[in-house]
Every structure is written in C-alpha cells, then in structure tokens.
Amino acid sequence: MASKMRLVRVLLLAVTSTWSFCFLRAQELALRLDDPAIEQRVSDLLGQMTLEEKIGQIVHFTADSSNEPGTMHPDYREQIAKGQVGSFENVTGAAETNALQKLAVEKSRLHIPLLFALDVIHGYRTVFPVPLAMAATWDPVLVERASRIAAKEATREGIRWTFSPMVDIARDARWGRMVEGAGEDPYLGSAMAVAYVRGYQGARLDDPQSMLACMKHFVGYGAAEAGRDYNAAEISERTLRQIYLPPFHAALEAGVGSVMSAFNTLNGVPATSNWFTLTHILREEWGFQGAVISDYGSTGETIAHGIAVDGQTAARKAILAGLDIDLESNLYSHYLPELVRSGAVPEVVVDQAARRMLRIKFALGLFDHPYAPEPATGGNPQLDPADVEFARTVAERSFVLLKNGESGGKATLPLGSEVRTIALIGPLADSAADMLGPWRARGTAADVVTLRTALTSRMQQAGRQVLYAKGTEIVSDGDSGFAEAVAAAKQADVVLMALGEDSFWMSAEAASRAHLGLPGNQQQLLEAVAATGKPVVLIVFSGRPLTVTWAASHVPAILQAWFPGVQAGPALVRTLFGDVSPSGKLTVSMPHSVGQEPLYYDALNTGRPADGIDLSRPPSNHDEKYHSRYVDEPNAALFPFGYGLSYTKFIYSPLELSTSQLSASGLNQKTAQALHVSTTVRNTGSRAGDEIVELYLRLRGTSVALPVRQLEGFRRVALAPGESKRVEFTVGRDELAFWNIDMQDFVEPASATVWIGPSSAEGKSADFVIAK
Ligand code: BGC
Asked: How far apart are alpha carbons 203 and 210 in whole angstroms?
C-alpha cells in the first residue's frame, strides 16, 4: 500500500489528453551527494580545519527583522569572519546576503562560504496558494513548476536553501500547520513531496537557480496529540512506516538534500535527539547522504522535554542521535568543543556532521559562485507577468466546489449574465494580506489582487454593479456592520460571502484551534444575510477544513478557496463566472464537528462498524446500541477526502481488469505481472472540465488489519463536453505491499477490492484475489 519503501513514482499528468509516468530515483538526478570529486575536496578542506571551524559549519543562526539593513546582531559578523557560522536564515536581498558572504569568503581563514536559508514555502515574491491548496490541485507538475519559480526568485537574492517541503501527514484539523502540507494521505503526500523537491533542486543543484530542499519535520509532527502544536506524538512503528514516513522517503528518493527534525517527542523521545529516526531509519535504512538540521531552537527544547537538564547534555544527546546542525539553540557552538575534548563526543562525529554541510556547499557550487547576482536597480524586483499568470492558474485548480445547489431553477454557479447586482460581503473579500497565507517569504500585500478588486472590475466592464459591505471583522463580537450587509444583500441578485480565518493567527505555526467553525461572529453574519432569502455563495478562506455544517444545508453554493496567493481575486472571479470550471478536490476530510477529529478516510474498520445504520439521527430504543458511532453526529465526513464538484458532470464506466488473480510470491519476487485496471470517464455535461480520477484499494484476509480504502493512484484528466477518455492504472507490488505482522514490507495473499472514482466515498469497484 502507500506505505512501502517504493520507488518514487510520480504521475506527470496534466490537462492534456496524454499522460506519462516518470520513474525517478536519486541516481537519475544530477544532484549527487556521493560525487567522489566532491568527497575529495571535502576531505582536503576538513583536513585543514580546526575543531572550532568544523563546529562552525554546523552552527546555524537566524537574523530577525531580516529585510532591513543594519539589523544584524553585531556578533554574527564577528563570528562569520572567524568561521564560526555555517549557515544563516532570514537574511534576504542580494546586497544583504552578499555583504555577509563577503565576510565569510574574504575574512574567514579558510574562505568557506555561508549558506543562506529561508522558509520559502509557497513562493518567494510571487506567492502561490498555500501548500494545502496546491495539494488540492492533485497536480504535481503544477507544484513542481511553482516551486521552480520560487527557486528562481529566491536564488536571485542569494537564498540557496529552503526549509520546504513540509511533508507531515496531518489528520487533525485542529492543528494549524495542516495548511503547510499536502493533507492526510501518504500517497498524495509523496507525490507532492517529490514535486517540491524537483522544483526547488532542479535538474542540477549547482545551477545558480537551484535551491537545496529540506523535508520536514522528521517525524510525527502532524500527529500532535489533540492537534495542539508542538504536542507529543505517539505513533506505532507500523503506522509510522505506513502513514508518516512514506512522503519523507519519497522526497529522499527524489534526491532531497536536507531534513529538519521535528519539535515533538515521538513515542517519548524528542525527534531532535531521536537515534531511531535520525540514524537508524534515515541513515542506516535509507542511506541518506544529506544533512539534518534541528527545528528552531529544538535542541535546547529537549531540556524542557526533560531528557537533558542542561545545554551540554542536550547538545551531546542531539549530535550522538544524528542531528548535524543546530538551528539557533546555540548549544553546539557553546558546548561541542569541550564535549569533544573531554571525549564525551568523538571528534569523528563532528567531522561527519561538518562533512555533510560542506558536501552540500560544494554540490550547490557555492565555493565557485558564492555571491547572488546583484540586482541592476536594487530593491524588490518586479514580479514576472508569466509567473503571475501561472499563479492564477494554480489558484483556479486549487478551489474545491463543495456544493452547487439550485437557485432560481438553475445551478447557482457559475454566475450568468442575468446577475446584474452582486453583494460582496465579508472580512476576507478585500483583505490582501490574508490572501498570501502564512509563510509568505518576500511576498507583499501590494502584489495581491483581492476578490473585491477583481470582481468590481469585471462587473464594471459589463455595466453591472457590486455592493460591498465588510459586515464584520475576522474576529469580532460587534454586529454594527450587519445592517449594511443585510441591506446590500437585499438589493442584490446574488450574494458572495467571503468568510474564514485569519491567515497568520489562526492558520499557521502555533495556531491550533479547539473550535473549527467560522471565527468570531461570521456565522451570525452568514445567517443574517441568508435570512434575506437571496442566493448566497459562501467562499471559505482557510488553511484547514472548517465546520461549515450549517452552511452545507442552508446556503446553495460553497467554494473552498483556501488562501489563494497573489492572484486570489482574478482566479476566483474567473471561476465564479465559469471561465474555468472548479476542479480541485479535498486532500483532507471535512468534519461535521470538531468532535470527529482526528478524521481521515483511510481508517481501520472496527469490529462493530455502523454500516447500514442511519447516523443522521440520534439512536432510538429500537436501534442496536453497540456500534462504533457517535450518538450525536454522523461518523462520515461532511465532505470526504478526494471530493470536489465541477460545473460539468463525469460518469465512470464499469471497471475492466486485466486479470482477477495475482500471485503474492510472484509480486514479492518481482517475477509476476501487475494488474491493469481501467475505466472510461466521460464528460456528460456541456462544459469542458478536468476530473481527478482516483484509485483506491482494500485488502482483507491479511495478517494485520488494513484501511477500509487506501489511495493508490490518481490522474487529472481534461475532458471537453461529450468527450470520453480511458484511464488505466497499474496495481502491482508497490500498491499491494504493506508492513505485515512481522514488520516486513510484503504482499500477502488477500481478497482485494479496487475502486476507481471521483472521491474516497464513491466509485466503481471490482474484486480480485491475491493468491499465494
Ligand atoms: C518552524 C520550521 C521553520 C523554522 C525556521 C520553525 O519555527 O517550525 O518549520 O522552518 O522555524 O527557522
């Protein structure tokens, strides 16, 4: 299943009628962290270095207030000149990075260049939709291109290391960092992880426009108990290997050059000092050659976790567990010299960590080209119009149409020419900064076109009008704006309500929420406006699923817009008016209520499943009581994983299987054929549209219980009205192996069901057998 140590298989699919598979291995990439010529140069250099200089390479600092000249802590400059800092983050601008680089290259004894890092998460200057939205495109090719654009922009200013992608599987919407990843599924998460790495690192790492990627947070960070950020994670080894590790392994096979350890404890051991994950899995099992960096201050935080009582012990435990670089705790620089001299840490351990950093610097070509190209005019370069247009396309493909009921006898969306007056209401309708989402690098609100701006311009060109009323703030308990909003709604043909979260305080790091409804009094505003009887389109801006349960039964249309980036407004307007059809699908299950969390589609069945029981009402005396159910909420998601509507309709033909029987031993020995399963998808509507076709599997009769369904393939298929396309998937060892009772990644004899369909809750199915 999705858990196995598979070759990374990325679907290079797009909206064209053809698709291709791209099988990638690290060896096929030009990124070579095992290049003998580089190893020789590293060895020569290490041979000349003092202990302090070697330790310097594994010390990483941050410069706060990054953009302004002269804000650096004065010591940093001194330390750089002495070769006591290896890498630096939060310095941006070519002039700034070059000034520090000059110190390292010209003043330090061995002229070793610095490596500049930044959290370039979903764009640098051209801000794309947040990663959760990018995942909702189910389009790795698009994500790769967006990451390449980010690399092009960041490297122009000397940033050659990004702390991205975040590949943490997130199954609890209370966790605010869900926004930074690809959602709940390891298969999709792996495809996205690969796409980011390919985009950032490019075909060659020493290309001046390539940036070292950093997969994070290793590992289990997304499983923080109760969704509270930084909280402990308890994950069995099977679940770790089956669910949480695969995207990391996929990124590694795509050649990722660095890893960031997580803040949390994993099964009681802080991830930053966790030998099992940092050394046993990463190095011994996976053969990782790159460098491991701590999260911000997390080496020092192992004291708070309680596995060390002082900085010296924290530093010793971390480096012996396999943590190469200390990010900002400043413990390695303070304590490693003495720890090595006293023999508590063998010098070879420091050598190895420094070697990994130097290897990366050579692979990036930094020794030969340490400086960023100075901008001709200085300042913040303009956005490239082609990149901006591409950002709009990404946003359009990330929107998920959750509901599109009828109003006035026809589908509410797209809006037609009969709509003369639109009321645009809500605190997110004109909030440029929020459109950028969290982690906006050097994106600025000035580059954003909001929904209000784009809608007004479109309507004015057509001689129609927009009545705008903010109504309320994102968080407020005052209703003084309600009357104006209701009055605008009453005069309109259609109401667009732009509601949702604050992109920084509610949807990001340290932004866990115990309530998942619309914040503040936005729900009351929505109800007041809906009470006018005018058709309402709810547009939800958020970095996680919100419980839009009331809206799902009271307003005719809901569009999940996430935080769409610089082109939020134009992308939304083109979608609302039907220039393009929505095609995104959820990569996280949307709950009815927060009490269902953690909620994910690929759950294990219980012994007492509530199949066939009406869960839409509380149990009565006539019902069998002892089922795995809530007495006050359905078990299923409000909108399931993989779900999303279009303006057109797609139908799937019955599945065709190339065989009804496979051989487990043949698959394990790689001598047997795989199964080919296909369907024909037809666009039966009158509009063009893209359909994301999803393949799921279930195995029964196995040595351990496996999920009720597991995603094992997907395709984005573009279909003109009336057009049909045959979509074929291969189901072989990679799709069928799982971590069995003996903790081996094997195919076992089983009864299998395969589904191909539009979501995790639908699809055409067929059975087959995996014999011995
Ligand atoms: C975050 C990391 C990020 C780092 C940068 C931390 O707070 O957890 O994801 O890369 O800051 O220093």
From this structure: 8
Residues with Cβ within 8 Å of residue 291, at least 6 apart in sequence = 257, 258, 259, 324, 325, 353, 356, 357, 359, 360
Look-up of token digits 């002892």: 626
Distance 473 CA to ligand 1 centre (A): 29
Residue 28, pLDDT above cutoff 50: no
> 159: which strand partners?
116
> Is there a contact between 215 and 281 (Cβ–Cβ < 8 Å)?
no
The verdict on pTM exceeding 0.90 is yes
Tokens of 66: 């990054």
Position 9 pLDDT exceeds 80? no
Q: Per the structure block, which two tokens stand in for 728? A: 């074929």
Span between the terminal Cα atoms of the chain, in Å: 18
Residue nearest to ligand 1 atom 4, measured at CA: 296
Please state the separation of Cα 139 from the chain's center in Å.
Answer: 13
CB 267 within 8 A of CB 235: yes
Q: Is 650 strand, coil or helix? A: strand
Cα 402 from Cα 571, distance rounded (Å): 17
Sign of CA dihedral 404, 409, 413, 419: negative
Residue 469 DSSP class: E
Q: How far is the CA of 157 from the centre of ligand 1 (A)?
A: 20
CA atoms of 674 and 658, how far apart (whole Å): 9
Whether residue 219 has a cis bond before it, omega within 30° of 0: yes
Sorted by sequence, the CB contacts under 8 Å of residue 653 that are 6+ apart come out as 679, 680, 681, 682, 764
Of 295, 326, 387, 602, the active-site residue reads 295
Please write the tens of the pLDDT for every residue from 66-115: 344 455 677 888 999 999 999 999 998 999 999 999 999 999 999 999 99
Parallel/antiparallel/unpaired status of strands 764-771 and 291-293: unpaired
**Integer Cα distance of 358 and 353 in angstroms:** 9
**Angle, helix 568-576 to helix 451-461, in steps of 10 degrees:** 50
Segments of 308-456 assigned E as strands: 326-327, 400-404, 406-407, 410-411, 421-425
* Two structure tokens written together for 412: 């509410």
Q: Where are the alpha helices (DSSP H) in 342-450?
A: 347-363, 385-398, 432-435
- Contact predicate 162/118, CB 8 Å: yes
Query: Alpha-carbon distance 700 to 388, whole Å?
Result: 48
Whose tokens are 């290049």? That residue is 35
Pocket of ligand 1 (CB under 6 A): 62, 89, 119, 163, 216, 260, 295-296, 327, 509
**Beta strand ranges found along 158-249 (DSSP E):** 159-162, 214-218
CA distances for 309 relative to 338, 455, 502, angstroms = 17, 58, 38
Q: Is 295 a catalytic residue?
A: yes
In 59-193 the beta strands, taken as DSSP E runs, fall at 59-62, 87-89, 115-118, 159-162
**DSSP 8-state code for residue 221:** G
d(CA 302, CA 265): 9
SS3 522: helix
- Give the pLDDT confidence score for residue 31 in this predicted structure: 54
DSSP 93: S
- Taking alpha carbons only, the member of 153, 196, 141 closest to residue 387 is 153
Round to whole Å and give the CA distance between 31 and 289: 11
State both tokens at 74.
């004065």
Cβ atoms of 158 and 90 within 8 Å: the answer is no
Q: Compute the distance from residue 64 Cα to the ligand 1 centre, in Å.
A: 13
C-alpha angle 533-531-520 in degrees, rounded to nearest 5: 135
Q: What is the pLDDT of residues 192-245, one digit of tens each?
A: 999 999 999 999 999 999 999 999 999 999 999 999 999 999 999 999 999 999
CA–CA distance, 454 with 460 (Å, rounded to integer) = 10
**Ligand 1 atom at shortest distance from the alpha carbon of 164:** 10
